[in-house]
Design a protein that fits this description.
Elements lengths: L15 H7 L1 H9 L8 H24 L2 E3 L3 H10 L3 E3 L3 E3 L4 E3 L3 E4 L5 E6 L8 H14 L5 E4 L5 E4 L4 H16 L10 H4 L5 H11 L10 H9 L5 H5 L15 H16 L3 E2 L9 E10 L8 E8 L8 E5 L6 H19 L2 E5 L3 H12 L6 H7 L5 E3 L1 H7 E2 L7 H6 L15 H13 L3 H33 L1
Parallel strand pairs: 1-2, 6-7, 10-13, 13-14
Antiparallel strand pairs: 2-5, 3-4, 5-6, 7-8, 9-15, 10-11, 11-12
Helix pairs in contact: 1-2, 5-6, 17-18
Bound molecules: iron/sulfur cluster.
Length: 478
C-alpha cells in the first residue's frame, strides 16, 4: 500500500495527460467520479500491442542487464539504494507535489543516478502526451538526466530539459483542476466527445444549453467568441443576421458564416439546404473502399482489403482483393493495379468513387512505398484526369444536412437522408481492424474463414453505401 496523505485519485499521474490533452473536463471527471468504463475492443487491441512492445523491451534489457521488478514505492527506493542496473515497473511518488508515476523502467546511469524509460507504440517522440509523461518521471526522479523512449518504430530517443515548460503547464493546470469544486465549462467537440466515456454525461448538458459547438463547422473557440456578443444558443445563431455577424475563430467570411447559420437552422428543424446543384462526373461508376491495418509491426499501414462494386451494383457484384497479412502487401498492391487496368478497359470512361481522401492518399503512399510513382496505372490514377472521385466533396460543397459529422455512415444511416443500414450494426473501420487482428491470431481455419467473411461483408456494405449515396444525390439534388 502507498503511504499517502492524499487519496490516490487526487494525485497527478502521467496517464492523466491523455485525458487532459483531449479535454480538461474529461480529466476533472476522471478525478471526481468513480466511473468504471469498459475499454472498447480497438483500445484493448492498442493496449495489448503496447504491452507486447513493453515485453519485447523488457526481454532486450534482460539480455544485457540484471532486471528487478518493483512492487511498491518503498521497494523501488530500496532497489535504487542497492544500485541495481534496471528496475522494471518502478513506482515513484512525490507527495509534496502530489505526483505519482510508474515508468516502465528505471535504468542506472554511469553517475549512479537513474533514468526513466518508457516503451511507446508511437513513432514520434514529439507527441505532447509522451513528452509530458516522460517529463513527469524526470520530475519525480529529480535529476538532470534525460528520459529514454523506446519508440514503436524501433528508435530509442531521449527527452531532456526542453520538455520542462510543457510539464510545468500540465502540473499547474492539473492543480487548478483538482481544486475546482465544479466541472470546468467546455464546448462540444464531435471528434472527441463521441468517443469519450463521459459522452452520455455531457451531451444532454450541451443540448439543454443549445451550445453552438454542437453545430458542424462551429469550433468551441468560435462559440466562446460569439457568446461575448450575445449569441450563445443555436436558436439565437440561427436567427442572426449574416451581414452583422462578427468574425470568430474558424468562422470568417460570409460563405462559411452563411453555411453555419443554415447548419443551425438544419439542426433545429431537420431541414436540408441545397447551396448549389450537385454535379457528378460522367462515366461508368465503380465504387471503391479499402480496409487497412495501422497496427503492423513496422507501423506501415497494410491494406488487407481493396473492395469494389461495379455495375449493376448488386451484392453479387462486390469484388475484393484480399491479403492474409503484410507479407502479401506488395502482391496485393499489384493485384489492385491490375484490377484497375481491367476496369479501365471494361468501363471507359471510368469513375472510381470513394468517400473522403483516404483512398487517394493510400494509393499515393503505396506508390511511394514501392517506388512506383512513374508506373502508368499509378499516373493515371493520381494524374490530372484521375478517375478517382471523392464523394464527400459534392456533399460538403452543396448540401447542409441535419448532421454533426459528414462521414459516410452519418449520412447513409440517417433515416431522413440516405437511410441505408449496414448488415452488421456494430461494424466500423476500427471494428474491421479488430476483426483482422483476430484473423491474424486465429489458428483454426474455419474461424479464420468466418472472420474474413465478416470483414468482407462490412466492406461490401461500405461500397453499397457509397452507391446508395450516389443514387440519393442524383435523385434529389441534380
Ligand atoms: S464528452 Fe466531451 S466535453 Fe465531456 S468530458 Fe468527454 S470530451 Fe469533454
Amino acid at each position: 500500500m502507498l503511504p499517502l496523505n492524499k487519496p490516490a485519485q487526487k494525485l497527478i499521474k502521467p496517464s492523466d495527460t491523455i485525458s487532459w490533452i483531449s479535454c480538461v473536463r474529461r480529466v476533472w471527471l476522471d478525478k471526481h467520479q468513480t466511473g468504471d468504463f469498459e475499454v472498447n475492443a480497438f483500445n484493448q487491441l492498442l493496449i495489448d500491442i503496447g504491452l507486447e512492445h513493453e515485453a519485447a523491451m523488457l526481454a532486450k534489457l534482460q539480455n544485457q542487464y540484471d532486471v528487478h521488478k518493483a512492487n511498491s514505492v518503498k521497494h523501488t527506493h530500496a532497489l535504487m539504494q542497492q544500485g541495481v542496473a534496471v528496475i522494471y515497473q518502478a513506482r515513484l511518488l512525490d507527495e509534496q507535489q502530489g505526483l505519482i508515476g510508474h515508468p516502465d523502467f528505471l535504468i542506472r546511469h554511469a553517475s549512479g543516478q537513474y533514468q526513466p524509460a518508457d516503451a511507446k507504440l508511437s513513432q514520434s517522440e514529439h507527441k505532447k502526451s509522451i513528452q509530458i509523461q516522460l517529463g513527469l518521471y524526470r520530475r519525480l526522479l529529480d535529476n538532470e538526466l534525460p528520459a529514454i523512449v523506446f519508440l514503436g518504430d524501433g528508435r530509442t530517443v531521449t527527452l531532456g530539459d526542453e520538455i520542462n515548460p510543457l510539464v510545468d503547464d500540465f502540473i499547474v493546470s492539473m492543480q487548478e483542476l483538482l481544486s475546482m469544486p465544479q466541472q470546468p465549462a467546455v464546448h462540444y467537440s464531435h471528434s472527441k466527445c463521441r468517443i469519450c466515456p463521459y459522452y452520455t454525461h455531457c451531451r444532454p448538458q450541451f443540448e439543454a444549453k443549445q451550445d453552438l459547438s454542437l453545430l458542424y463547422g462551429v469550433h468551441g473557440s468560435a462559440a466562446s467568441h460569439l457568446a461575448k456578443v450575445g449569441i450563445s444558443t443555436i436558436s439565437q445563431f440561427a436567427s442572426s443576421d449574416l451581414e452583422t455577424l462578427p468574425d470568430a475563430p474558424y468562422l470568417k467570411g460570409s460563405k462559411r458564416k452563411h453555411r453555419s447559420i443554415l447548419q443551425a437552422k438544419s439542426y433545429l428543424t431537420g431541414e436540408i439546404f441545397q447551396l448549389n446543384k450537385v454535379e457528378l462526373p460522367e462515366g461508368t461508376w465503380v465504387h471503391f473502399d479499402i480496409e487497412d491495418n495501422p497496427l503492423t509491426p513496422t507501423r506501415e499501414r497494410h491494406v488487407y482489403l481493396w473492395g469494389f462494386l461495379a455495375p449493376p451494383y448488386n451484392k453479387d457484384n462486390f469484388e475484393a482483393i484480399w491479403t492474409d497479412d503484410e507479407t502479401e502487401d506488395y502482391p496485393g498492391w499489384l493485384d489492385f493495379l491490375t484490377k484497375m487496368d481491367g476496369y479501365r478497359a471494361q468501363y471507359a470512361p471510368l469513375v472510381f468513387a470513394h468517400y473522403s481522401n483516404h483512398e487517394r492518399s493510400t494509393i499515393k503512399k503505396y506508390a511511394q512505398r514501392y517506388a512506383m510513382q512513374n508506373d502508368a496505372t499509378v499516373q493515371w490514377l493520381l494524374g490530372h484526369d484521375s478517375p478517382l472521385f471523392d464523394m464527400q466533396k459534392p456533399v460538403l460543397n452543396n448540401l447542409v444536412l441535419p448532421l454533426q459529422g459528414y462521414g459516410l455512415k452519418d449520412i447513409c444511416k440517417h433515416p431522413a437522408l440516405v437511410n441505408f443500414q449496414w448488415e452488421n450494426e456494430e461494424s466500423s473501420a476500427q471494428w474491421s481492424v479488430v476483426q483482422f487482428s483476430r484473423f491474424l491470431d486465429a489458428t483454426d481455419a474455419r474461424e479464420k474463414q468466418r472472420l474474413k467473411a465478416e470483414i468482407l461483408g462490412y466492406n461490401r456494405d461500405d461500397v453499397i453505401a457509397t452507391r446508395k449515396l450516389e443514387e440519393w444525390l442524383r435523385h434529389h439534388f441534380m
